[in-house]
Amino acid sequence: MTESPMDRARSACEALCATYAAMADASRADDFAALFAPDGVFDRMGTELVGRDAIRAIIAGRPPGTWSRHVNSNVRISVAADGRSATGTCDLAMERGIAGDPKVEQLRGAYTDQYVLTGEGWRFRRRAFRLAD
């Protein structure tokens, strides 16, 4: 069975969400930032980071020994009729801490995403995270 262009776009956006989690958890700052369009925006609970350099800094600036585990669920993607943009949401359960410290922080929330097809492939145009109520 052949996937339609819309199905391929949806799959690519879903993969982008998974890769985001993997790159954040692996502390791969450059690869994490490259998931966003060059002028992409990451809205972290109301603080907007614009452009790859600012987005890269959130991973690169972690204290030594920082670890995280992002678990995505309920990923929902809607591709625009032109097949070049999409919107979506993704729920998150996350744990993070510092190696050797028994304290583990748990976060729950959701991402609201805007995706764009670029010459590099699908990227986040905008990703906003809010904690669950």
Keywords:
6-stranded mixed beta sheet, single chain, 6 strands, Nuclear Transport Factor 2, Chain: A, globular, 26% helix, alpha+beta, 133 residues
Report on this model:
With 133 residues, the chain is of the alpha+beta class. The chain has three helices and six strands, in the order ααββαββββ. Strands 2-1-6-5-4-3 form a six-stranded mixed beta sheet. A hairpin with a 2-residue loop joins β5 and β6. It is globular, with a radius of gyration of 15 Å. The mean pLDDT is 96.
Summarize the entry for a quick read.
The protein has 133 residues and is of the alpha+beta class. Helix content is 26%, strand content 50%.
Q: Strand percentage, roughly? A: over 45%
**The number of domains:** 1
Strand elements, count: 6
Shape assignment: globular
Major β-sheet annotation: 6 strands, mixed
How would you summarize the topology of this molecule?
Blueprint: H1 5-25, H2 29-33, E1 36-44, E2 47-50, H3 52-60, E3 66-79, E4 85-98, E5 104-118, E6 121-131
Parallel strand pairs: 1-6
Antiparallel strand pairs: 1-2, 3-4, 4-5, 5-6
